[in-house]
Specification:
Helix content is about 20%, strand content about 40%. The protein has about 120 residues and is of the alpha+beta class. Strands 2-3-4-1-5-8-7-6 form an 8-stranded mixed β-sheet. The chain is globular, with a radius of gyration of 14 Å.
Length: about 120
């Protein structure tokens, strides 16, 4: 598996409108449309993105995700599964293919391949 860098960070929160307003109105981040993503997405100058979504399981509070850019998503998913890590099946937006997994620290991460 070739990890090329960090490409995405996101938060899932019951306070999505307030968080989105902070990012746009106070931090001045540029909001972008990304069909296929159920989140408010912001481009950062270095090419990475930050997303704000509703909490994944209502009533369970906030969670975070970090996206590792990979050269080949299918290879990366295969390698994680071979190591015994439970990985979601790959999904796709207009810009990326990605798959989520929960690491031993209990955190949500994702592997991202640019299309």
């Amino acid at each position: 598996m070739d990890i090329l860098g960090l490409v995405f960070a996101g938060t899932a929160t019951p306070h999505r409108p307030a968080m989105t307003a902070l990012l746009a109105d106070v931090l001045g981040l540029a909001r972008v449309a990304d069909p296929g993503m159920d989140a408010d997405v912001f481009d950062l100058p270095d090419g990475s993105r930050f997303g704000v979504a509703d909490e994944r399981e209502p009533g369970r509070g906030r969670s975070r995700t970090i996206g590792f850019l990979v050269a080949d998503l299918d290879v990366a998913v295969r390698d994680l599964r071979a190591a015994g890590v439970d990985v979601d099946d790959p999904q796709q937006t207009d810009r990326q293919r990605y798959a989520h997994f929960v690491a031993p620290d209990g955190g949500l991460y994702e592997l991202v391949q640019e299309i």
